[in-house]
């Protein structure tokens, strides 16, 4: 019984059809599960002629003995020992539905198959590989000769022929197989369309208007284009389902034909390579404007455009083509050529009606009711070393080759025809047909003349079948591609009429071929070929496969194994997908993301991160949710002395004056912000604090009714809810700021305006309750009386901090953990966290599934391991650090897994990366809970601190979950628990009673990494920082430890980053030059006009790339800032506070290994670029500040006088470049004048005096308490020491000496557990460093 034949057609009220259909499908599946039996054995009763194989070991091992449980003769089938590509084929005699397989080894032997793949076909000329979830499925086989291994197929198949392809046998024996196939009879109604025919289903009335439709069918196409379904109405409605270049396109229009602005027709594309001579299923479900469109196992849900709900079709619905009315046999578009089966329209079996010649069905052309199996035989060149040779007779005055090819590769050898060849005399004449840049290139090459080339106009590397024909005749070459006119070229050579044999090479060169034949040929072809002819004689692929004709290597016969790796598109965030035969690539340019699948964000998540990179205030691009769905967007960052604000403006920036409004007819003003609502909500949610100022001045206008407190004015929050408070963060209190601060002009009222005075008063307030921000609309009511007036101004939304950056939890027991819902990360997962600990190892994160899992752990004191399993074996990545990671300091771990591979990075160490297997599983299916800081087994848990855990851009609230979890507490004690201690990216390092800032990775100095390191240069000054091998040795060792499967494109490459402050009036000049290996370099120069020019040379065989970022003159004597980052070929440049400008290089190679960084004058060297040499020879006159390239700060190294890697020539003096301490600029908030401000100024000295008095009193009290505690501590220590036995003095001295010498003393588990227990009981009063 075919599920597609069961169609339930019922009427439902509008809006309920989809949900009801879901219920019906669920009921049908339950019904089918209990009553639909399809597990009959299908092989047992087959005759011997139903079995075939690639070879047999002997007459006792024939394929007919391969029935399950057979013990006759040799006890099963075994291939010949020399058979490199064995297979066993079963003919089920008719199309059957196959649901399961079972296998055994060969009885009485050591032969069995431990792994195999499955092919299926309706004929023996076009095989299809069994796949599940777009993955080539490999079945586990047997481990002995007699045990039966049963596999239920994840999805059933309908086929006649099955082919089992053994991949691996018994290593100590051989391959042996017995098999059983389970399923049931499959019946269907089939119609064959010859490309000039169609079936018309005519309605009983003039037109049919439907609110819901269900169309289902299965098809097998012989060509890439053709109409499957079409219907239209006179008022403009239509539905069309057609194949276009092997893809199914559904076009649906429910509106009339009158054009409307902004309304476009609904068109949805699904599937790819559907002209592969295999069956594909289609289902269209529509209710009103909601549509579900399913092709095979992929479904797309969409909503039609316009306002109409019904589809009105006149007269008829056509299948197989669009006939032209009044002209029988004439069609508007190319007809479908192939077979359809089980074709249903709203419960009507169209093919069954046609077979029974019912009057509702009208047939045009030749429609038959059996499916023709005639199809061309294909061969797949699947590897770079694949080739096929075939003989050809040359004996006429002309020569021709024609064939069809299908590939994604832009380069590859198609055919080499040696027309003449004398190896001893080095004489040859050969015809070469190849792909070059996606176009077809025909070349005639000889020993005596330069080659003659002919190019096709169109490209053929698009995955479609293309017809190629090559002919040489009368000193002319002809190249024909598809239906294009042939391209003709004259040649001085011609083909002689002497009859002789020749060997044609298809797809590549055999190892045995002489170099003279293949010299200069392109790379091997990877793709499919069919219908191959030489001099009008077909190449018999069946004989080639049987090795009775020609030769071959690494080919798959009877199948075209091409795959569309861009369908579905795994490139995220709008990345453009392109592909070759074996893999796909994502072009992330312009998306704001990078990485193998455009998943990793290029931009920071908050302005707070830019402060850490020493960037001043200005306009920046932020990605508020990291790798989440929100697009990056420009915002304004405003840095004050202690905070970095994200400022979001709106369209109402000027003061607004209001008169004449009432409670019944209030004045309203809506605000449109520069960010979308989703971005605003993300910003507010992740920020530590947000506020918005409402400047409100009134005269004889109240905010609240003085009798009953009814609000006369209000505002709407971001969700549209009405709010009546005008200051602070207490939303439930109807008060103004003056009431909250206790300084209202009339203490009988909560707002100054409510005093209803005939004078201007101020009720300006600062809204800071985050859940209500930003303000969306304001309404003012009480301004209709004489003299009533209000002036208001809404300030921008201002937020600072990241509430999740220091969101942390402390784990005290090995068995403790936090649990969260399962990860939803089937295709892509990125994670980021910080940890600090003193233990030897521990699991940081784990999530399990039925077969899959993912785990991140501290595997040793100096190693972090990221391991995951998709169901086909674990994949592990480990980053080892040259220093201990259990040093009680914060360490940053980042990891990502996607369909192309995975990578892991710890701190600033080089990332470790690995490529995904080419035919591995893609989906990470996790079902269990996510464990943080522990495991489901409660073993090997983490003890220490975790913070800032984000998964796919979503931050987990560790503190909130830790409040209710035993063995875990929110927060983490220590000095380094804030991001404002060490500036400009400095690292906070815990010490016993304090902290220090490690500024070694920054361009700044001082105790808090806030001291600017700048220097003044004159025309002869030059500073060169030279890299040494020892400095990069650690990175090289880590890189060399990567496995052979690593792929550069799998993960993020270590990006080039540059920050540079400069001040000059001299041009032309060079600011910086970085030299890499060979002739590679990057140079930053100022041209004579004062504009900047960036030179990148990453490919020594090409000219340098020149980037010219837009800006005003930079030689104006002012301090300017350049920020540059490079990720592969993409370069992002920002000058001062302008928007980032994106450039694309011609090469994405690395500069590494680096040789030197030069500032100032350039003398000598191997740079050949004239502009760079000229700018460098003039020297630099001015000031350079805070120069940092990647992790190197050459200016800081020079000014510290501690580095032997820096060489200085000329005069170099320390300077401030006009900046007192930092490039950060202070931001000023402008507001309307506050009339109450003057009255408050006199209170400031009094407040300061009160503060001083309070400080003195507090100091005295603190001193008394401290003295008392010290006395009590001495007494307790004295009593405790006299109570317990004193340890031996020698051991105590030795232990103390070891502690003083070892900066990172080891901690035994018992000692750590004791310290944790002590810390747990006193952690509210005592600091403890984990």
Automatic annotation (TrEMBL):
Chain intervals with Polar residues compositional bias: 1213-1231
Kindly list the GO CC terms recorded for this protein: membrane
Disulfide pairs here are 945-972
Q: Which InterPro entries match?
A: ConA-like_dom_sf, EGF, FA58C, Fibrinogen-like_C, Fibrinogen_a/b/g_C_dom, Galactose-bd-like_sf, Laminin_G, Neurexin-related_CASP
Localization per record: Membrane
Q: Where in the numbering of this chain does the F5/8 type C domain appear?
A: 38-184
Q: Which residues form a coiled coil?
A: none
Question: Which residue intervals are annotated with compositional bias (Basic and acidic residues) in the record?
Answer: 1232-1251, 1291-1305
Residues in Laminin G domain copies? 190-371, 376-560, 807-972, 1028-1217
- Transmembrane parts of this sequence: 1255-1280
Q: Describe the family membership recorded for this protein in Swiss-Prot or TrEMBL.
A: Belongs to the neurexin family.
Q: What does this protein do?
A: May play a role in the correct development and proper functioning of the peripheral and central nervous system and be involved in cell adhesion and intercellular communication.
Name assigned to this protein: Contactin-associated protein-like 5
Gene behind this protein:
cntnap5l
